Amino acid sequence: MAANLKRKRDNESQPGKARKVSPAPSHGTEEESENSENAADEEEEWGGLSAPVAMDVDDGPSSSKPSKPPTGVQVREMREAGNLYRSSTFKMQIDELLPNVRPKEKQKASLEPFLMSLYKCLNNIPSSPPIQPLEAARPLLKKGISVPYSIPLPSEDSNWKVAFEPPSNITLVGSWNNKTSVKGMDGRSWGVDIAVEMPDSLFQEKDYLNGRFFHKRAFYLAKIAAAISGKKSGLDADCAYQSHADNPRLTRLVVNPHQSTSKLKADIFIIPVLSPTSPIALKRLAPSVCNVHSSDARPPTPLYNTAILTALTPPAHLLAVHKWQQEAPAFTDALSLLRVWANQRGFSEGSGMQVQGFEGKGPWWTSLLGVLIEGAEVAGKSKRKPLGRGLSSYQLFKAALDFLGTHDWEKQPVFVKTKEGHLYAPSEYEEHHSAVFVDPSSKVNLLANVPIGSLDLLRYEAKKTLNVLATTSSLDPFSEAFLQEQRTLCTRFDAVIRIDLSTSMLHDIDVNAILDHGSRHNALLAAMSSRLRQGLGNRTKVVTFLHPTPPSRPLSQALPSNPNVLFVGLVYDPEHAFRQVDHGPDAKDSDPNNAARFRELWGEKAELRMFKDGKILESVVWDVKTADEKSHLPVQVVRHLLDIHFGVKETQSWHSSYDAFIRLPEPLSKMYADSKLPVGFKGALNAFDNLVKSIKSLPEDELPLHILNFTPVSPHLRYTSTFSPVPRLSSLPPNASYIHPMPLIVQFEKSAQWPDDLQAIKKVKLAFFERIAANLMNAVDGLTASVVVGHVGGEEDDPTLEVLTADGWAFSIYIWHDRELTLLNRVLTTDTGHINRPGEKKRKGHEYHEAVAAKELYLRRFIHSPRHHRAISQLHHVFASYSGTTRLVKRWFAAHWLLGGHVSEEAIELLCAYVFVRPHWERDHDQNPDSSLGAHVPASKERGFAMVMDFLQSWKWEDGVFVHLYESSDSEQEEAESGFSAPSSGVWMIKTEVDKTGKVWTSKGPDAIVARRVQVLAAATWSHLKTVECDGDSVQPIFTHPTGNYDFLVELDPLVLPRYHQNVHADLSLLSRQQGRYSNLKADDTPMRIGFDPAQAFFSDLQRIYADTFRIFWDPLGGATFGAVWDPTLREPRPFKVLGGFSSAPHNDKAESSKKSKGKDLVVFNEMAVLNEISRMGSGLVKSVTVK
What we know:
The protein is elongated. α27 (882-895) crosses α28 (905-914). The protein is 37% helix and 14% strand. The protein starts with 18 loop residues before the first strand and ends with a strand. Strands 5-6-9-8-7 form a five-stranded mixed β-sheet, with helices on both faces. It has a five-stranded antiparallel β-sheet with strand order 10-16-17-15-21. It has 1188 residues and is α+β, with helices and mostly antiparallel strands. α13 (426-432) links the parallel β13 and β14 (437-438).
């Protein structure tokens, strides 16, 4: 919305000295010249609050004078701004926003002549005598104008007549008159409401029956449309019909002046209304009265009655708003803030995904603030005390959010205070409306047609905004509250279901409901909303319908055309969303109707079941086989209810499509299912526990020191590995035989017997491991253990114990000895550098640089990794969707060839944690386990993934980000901060309480090039995500990496890649035993090498050897292609020198050589030599090298 906001300077609303505001950055000279020439007539685009704004005070002719200190009045104003507006900066942002969401005075003036002409036209429309309804419509139909008669439609037997007389009064009503208009969404025009009062002589006392009032109103509106659209009117404008909330009874006429008539883009809405002296009996319009007689049974028609009463309210609302503006000076600004906030979240009209029930709810928003100012009452007694009328606009806005976030609409009716008393008893509204908010005239329930699910979403959004405004983190609360559009489905809801209503059937809807709602479509939506909320129960916090606001229709179309596609948004309650059994009434229940209602709701799925406690209950059991199916259980419930009650079979939800990207291929999954081995995260944790027990149970005399503890530091043991961990099976094909080791850290008791030398400590570790391995293999059958020094393509030579259990689980164990850090610091502080020549800058020796790298590795492995592992594990247990979110995001990074080689897994885990945690979340969770699950927390992995993509595409990584992950002590912070002195090439700064630099997990990447690439890829992903639910696109492109920008590609042989089965686009035909290169090699003869991945080793070699030649990318999860881009600085010829740093060849252009080299021979980069060397190094692994 920020891009569409217009600059506005209202002198009346901005007292004091004028401010000069610098214009937004220009995007072209033609646009600049055009804006300058038409500055007086055209609207100036607002650059938004993120652009730098220079604010100068015109204190004198010269700006070179030194600035004066603030006066006492100015100091008091600044202090009051901090108290009343959260901060003085926040107040400045509000002052900058408000003029830009209101119409400009000059353009408002340009509309006045047209309004005067329209006024004259309406008064000059000739009268027409009473005539039968259908006969009256025929002459108009010949002119191309249909009369929008609503149901029940008039017939030839109708014994009443319609007529037309000039309006008895014409009033400019609504926000335009009260100067509370706010710019709408999606470039919508300004709205100007004109109440045209129909003369009393056109109506009779019983016109409230069977739609007679609406038929007379429709004919009156059609006559006005014929007069305005006729040539004799002299009005240069277009006319159309528009039905409020798709209700044909609330049709209004839309008059759109042409640009030649008015420079303001505005829609004028002509609304026929009743006079206060109308003969229609108001006592017959109570919510409990039936006024549509279709059968012997006459149920109440509260919505029908409310629609008639709406024709009496526009003038009353106009006066009420004027009164509140006089009583509370900040009312207008607070209302503007509230409407901007609501518009950004779809609680208004728009072409995006708008929340059902909030079209044309301007009177409700004003009445909401009116309740806060005057208070509310029930049965003449005060129920809500009024707020202070001297509140600032921000305070009044926050009070409105607090009311919306805490009010229970189903149980707490609201009645605006009125001096004349209430027209109907409060119990009338409560019994026949699901939500009650009676307007200042005490006639209309403003929430009569608003579903409870939409109000639930409003409460949810209000709570979320209050949390943002109260936060002290690095978020920009003003931008998130007022500027950022919040209508995107994928980040707003945990699940979105697309429904095709074309196949729906009215199983649960009777004729009376259709007559009350005004159309089959509205009755169907109301029934669906009620059924889904009843069936889902406490599984969800929000169940709401969303759809674009229907556009206006031509005058030749009498009734609105309802869309067939509808979207259902679900916000889960993680505590209850995924239960597999729904309990109903007891079999011994004294009221048999309870069991009948339960079975009617669930159909054939309802059954009697006996439970362990002996109870026999009506129950519904949902059949789920995997954890992925369980995570989509609420969607399964919605589909079942829509099918059995409404015959809707065409439903789509793309959330289950993500599961395939973090799941093994189907042939391998079947192998593990047939093996009956424990798999998944629980299987890995059980294997870890069994290994620890086995080692600790070894005889004490076999170990030189007692073991204090084992600490896991593996994503597989904290629920964040991309794929669920599985053990090694001997029957797997060679290209699915990778054995992933899970690193562990073992700590022995302190002892003075440890040597005081780093190399000697490594020897002692080797001896410890050798003793443990020998005893462990003797104690546990089928277990193998081996001591390893160094890793292929690795960065360290610290001894490791690799263990492969009998079930196929692999572990790598490291020994933590805290004395090593002291010895490394001693090396770093000892002057052991080179002997320098006189005047030469002192250089560090090789030993120093090795110690720097060793210390960095020590701190990362033994200090930060265990702490990080504990924190991430706790996140999994607190936030159910965190694990799935992290796994999807890791898959995305890997699919785009960035994981591991450029972005560490720990950095990704922290970025994902950022969208879940807020300050003090851990303490709040300890005090109340449900308090940390705030409105901002996603309850599904798909929503969490979308939120991370949204963050990445808009993140200013130059400023870093702070993740409130720990609540550590000062000693822990000092220990962590003392560690990182190693040079850093990464540009991301992901700070935590124990990492103030933000470089623990980003010191080696990503660099600026990769960081910008991540942002571009995230922006493309985010753009695609916004279209998935609406347009039905597949999520497959999100995980498909583009290769067009690489200079060359290295294709690998998938048959020799042990992780090929994890490839995002794996060819399943290659995952078979017959595809092995040597068919005579038996499965038992295949060597079991833990952590061996030739592609990873090859990638690491290329990345190290050619660091100054090209930048290389690869998917470590089964990727079969390397992509690389040349260093662009190597393209230019340069003079030859020894140790030039790249492969070179003599330059053939001698003329250019003599010109640039000044007598020296020029060399150029030898691309073919490098490519040939890559092929040679990857012999047996590389299939081809393709130059792009």
